[in-house]
Amino acid sequence: DAIAGTAGESVQVSLPAGSLGVGDYWGVVSVGDPAIVEADVAIGEEVFGVEPASGNTQAPGGTQQFAVEIHGLTAGETTVRVLYCTRTREVEEDCDQSHGTLEPPVEPVEISVRVA
How far is CA 15 from the centre of its chain? Predict the structure, then answer.
């Protein structure tokens, strides 16, 4: 995937849903050049277009929307790498993917970013 933006602008890229209740988690494992962009994972209501939950309408263990949010800092090109891990909140290379809501192996998401 490739996206383009401008410095000072934030862009979200949708990721497959996961279940936080069982420890499914998407995380940013690397940013090629952190001087060009900051990247983090947005979950649930933080994802653009997701309605805020009213009351306790979600069953425990229900799936959540995930997106990677990329904020342009300065002009340039770089790559953001996002990984899916299960039974954890610590996302790292070679993590366990066998217990999640997505069928393993879940390929890492690599996003090429150009900031103008």
Answer: 6
